[in-house]
Structures are given as structure tokens and as C-alpha cells.
């Protein structure tokens, strides 16, 4: 490694190494962060203890209100270290409720934006249907708010974004990913369990990242911005995207293009990163 690259790495302030609360604080203007329904409010999941699981006092979701470059903003950060970032009744309600309030602010003339930090395996299995309902409410709230202001999603690492929250990420106005990010509807372990190790070896990390990692998802058009793991740079990119405003067309409006991509998939052969990129290029250029 040359000295210039080594110096750059040493000066970098890792975003991935921060916990959810610190990530939210990094994105908001200094001194502006105010946490809603925080850990001292003791709003915990009523279901985990019944199943012998220790609950967390904020249910693994941080709702931080403040300003970003002087503009009202709410940051919704999922703590991947708690239950794999899974969403249950309480955590899901915190995210959906905050997004709904942000949309209500906009209808009152207060231009409130939102950032969602996705570190989630999807629905919390211990809460099943309650978690699924909460994630559906999040989807609805994202679609409502993005009519007024950009909803920015960030997948940094190390958990990634899977299940219903992957759909939430796809609904965002803009999606930022790092090289360490992963994005998929089903996680590698689930695919291996259901389809067998010949289909997906979840222990083959290079293979996994080559197909669902941040760079691949960006090159396939499933993410908008590909960034290094640097907290200040990510904050700068978020500010730029807010200034860009609501996109002319959201990714979820391109369903016909995605259907063309799916029609090109040959399920009899093992997918390769290059083949997947080619399919997306063909599907979106037709």
C-alpha cells in the first residue's frame, strides 16, 4: 500500500463502525439532534420477554430529529447489533410514525426531510405478523413523504438490508451504499436453507458480495450512489441529494423495466456478476 493511500485510510472516519445513535448524530447538524422515544422512555417490545429474549429499551430503533444543512430532518437509524436489526411492532411503529409526522409537517409548510439507515434482516420472527404490518406501514409512509421531499436510504454495513426492509430501501428517493453493504430480498443463509448449498453457499463471502454487495447493486442500477466508508463524505452526499430534490421518476416507477430484466434470467445456470449486470443493462435499455 502506498503512503498516500495509507494516509487516506488513517484519516477516514468510519461510518460503519458507529452505532445507530452515533450515525444519526453524524448526519445531523451539530447540536441539533433531539431523540424521540429514546432509551430512557423505556418503550420496549412486549413480546420478546414472553419468548425468553432480552428486550432493548429503544427496541433497536433510533428516531433523531434535527436539521441537516439547516433544513428540518428526521433520521431513522436501525441498530444492527440488536436482533440483527430486525423490525417488530415497536421499532416499526417508531419509523412509520416519524415518517408520517414528517409528511404531515410538509403539508403544513414545514419542509421536513428523512434519512433511513438500513441495517436490518427484515421482519422480527418473534413478532411475525405484527412486524410485517409495521413494515407495510413503513412502505406506505415512505411513498407518502417522498411526494414532498426526498427520502434518502443508506445501507452501510455490516448487517445489510434484507426482507421487507429491502423493499423499503427500493422505495426511497435515493439509495446510498458502501462496498461493505449488502442488499437482497432474501439473505444468503435463507437461500442456502431453501435452495441448497449448490445454489448459494452463504459462507462464500466473495461470491455473496459479488452478487448482492454494494458495488454490484450500484452497477445494476439498484442503488444511486456508491461511496467509501467515510462518515463526513456520506454526510456531504446526503446534503447534496437533499438539494437535488425529489427525483423526476422514482425507481419503483420503473416496474416494466424490472420485469424485462426478470424475463432475461436463465434459472438453469448459476448467475455471475457480469451476467447480472448485462441483464440489467439490456432490460433498462429496451
What does this structure look like?
The structure is a single chain. This protein is α/β, with parallel strands linked by helices. The protein folds into two domains: 13-248, 2-enoyl-CoA Hydratase, Chain A, domain 1; 254-286, no CATH class. The chain is 42% helix and 14% strand. It has helices at 3-11, 20-27, 89-107, 128-145, 164-171, 188-195, 205-212, 214-219, 231-244, 255-263, 273-285, and strands at 34-36, 61-68, 71-78, 113-117, 151-155, 161-162, 174-178, 183-184, 225-227. A seven-stranded mixed β-sheet has the order 1-2-3-4-5-7-9, with helices on both faces. The longest helix is centred in the middle third of the chain and has 19 residues, at 89-107. The protein is globular and about 50 Å long.
Concise overview:
The chain is α/β, with parallel strands linked by helices and 286 residues long. It has 11 helices and 9 strands.
Topology diagram in text:
Layout (H helix, E strand, L loop, with lengths): L2 H9 L8 H8 L6 E3 L24 E8 L2 E8 L10 H19 L5 E5 L10 H18 L5 E5 L5 E2 L1 H8 L2 E5 L4 E2 L3 H8 L9 H8 L1 H6 L5 E3 L3 H14 L10 H9 L9 H13 L1
Parallel strand pairs: 3-4, 4-5, 5-7, 6-8, 7-9
Antiparallel strand pairs: 1-2, 2-3
Helix pairs in contact: 3-4, 4-5, 10-11
Amino acid at each position: 500500500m502506498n503512503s498516500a493511500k495509507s494516509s487516506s485510510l488513517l484519516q477516514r472516519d468510519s461510518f460503519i463502525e458507529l452505532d445507530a445513535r452515533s450515525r444519526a448524530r453524524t448526519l445531523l447538524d451539530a447540536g441539533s439532534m433531539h431523540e424521540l422515544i429514546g432509551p430512557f422512555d423505556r418503550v420496549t417490545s412486549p413480546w420478546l420477554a414472553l419468548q425468553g429474549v432480552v428486550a432493548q429499551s429503544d427496541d433497536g430503533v433510533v428516531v433523531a430529529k434535527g436539521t441537516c444543512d439547516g433544513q428540518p430532518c428526521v433520521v431513522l437509524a436501525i441498530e444492527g447489533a440488536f436482533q440483527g436489526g430486525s423490525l417488530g411492532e415497536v421499532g416499526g411503529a417508531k419509523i412509520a410514525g416519524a415518517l408520517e409526522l414528517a409528511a404531515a409537517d410538509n403539508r403544513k409548510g414545514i419542509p421536513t426531510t428523512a434519512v433511513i439507515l438500513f441495517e436490518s434482516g427484515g421482519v422480527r420472527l418473534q413478532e411475525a405478523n405484527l412486524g410485517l404490518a409495521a413494515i407495510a406501514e413503513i412502505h406506505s409512509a415512505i411513498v407518502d413523504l417522498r411526494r414532498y421531499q426526498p427520502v434518502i436510504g443508506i445501507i452501510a454495513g455490516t448487517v445489510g438490508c434484507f426482507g421487507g426492509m429491502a423493499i423499503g430501501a427500493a422505495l426511497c428517493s435515493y439509495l446510498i451504499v458502501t462496498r461493505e453493504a449488502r442488499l437482497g430480498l432474501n439473505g444468503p443463509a435463507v437461500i442456502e436453507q431453501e435452495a441448497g448449498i449448490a445454489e448459494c453457499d452463504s459462507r462464500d463471502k466473495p461470491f455473496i458480495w459479488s452478487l448482492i454487495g454494494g458495488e454490484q447493486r450500484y452497477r445494476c442500477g439498484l442503488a444511486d450512489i456508491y461511496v467509501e466508508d467515510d462518515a463526513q463524505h456520506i454526510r456531504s452526499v446526503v446534503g447534496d441529494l437533499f438539494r437535488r430534490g425529489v427525483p423526476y421518476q422514482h425507481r419503483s416507477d420503473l416496474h416494466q423495466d424490472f420485469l424485462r430484466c426478470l424475463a432475461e434470467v436463465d434459472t438453469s445456470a448459476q448467475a455471475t456478476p457480469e451476467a447480472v449486470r448485462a441483464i440489467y443493462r439490456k432490460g433498462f435499455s429496451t
